[in-house]
Amino acid sequence: MSAASETPKSGIEIIKWLLVFAILAVAVVGNYLYELSALEKAIAIVVLVIIAGVVAGQTHKGKTFINFAKEARTEIRKVVWPTRQETMQTTIVVLVATVIMGLLLWGLDAILLRTVSFLTGLGI
């Protein structure tokens, strides 16, 4: 992207992002400063993260991300997933290929080891 194609940030966008970072900072700092039970801390952090997410969702980049997530969800529904039988057959093929390659590499390693041992006279 070129600099000319990017839209300039408005003041309200910057304020929204500063608010998001401030809310997240409160969550992090509050986690260390306040002596609350683990459940209370967890609830407080989840609530603050949700609030920060809602505020971030109101920005231009947040709206773009939400639109992207919706489109990705639509596309993932179009995927044709393999059946259990296809998955098992593919898994077996991969395992057999892995075993064959492992045996070939083991054999090659043994041959090279014996060759180097013979040439150097170390008798490994």
Fold and architecture overview:
By secondary structure, the protein is mostly helical. It has helices spanning 11-33, 38-57, 60-78, 84-120. The longest helix is centred in the C-terminal third of the chain and has 37 residues, at 84-120. The chain is elongated and about 75 Å long.
Task: Give the tags.
mainly alpha, elongated, disordered N terminus, 124 residues, 80% helix
How large a portion of the residues is in β-strands, by DSSP E?
under 5%
**Whole-number radius of gyration?**
29 Å
Mean pLDDT: 90
User: So what's the overall shape?
Assistant: elongated
What structural class should be given to the helix and strand makeup? Answer: mainly alpha
What is the N-to-C succession of helices and strands? HHHH
Q: Report the helical percentage.
A: over 70%
In short:
With 124 residues, the protein is an all-alpha fold.
Question: Which helices and strands occur, and which strands form pairs?
Answer:
Elements: H1 11-33, H2 38-57, H3 60-78, H4 84-120
Helix pairs in contact: 1-2
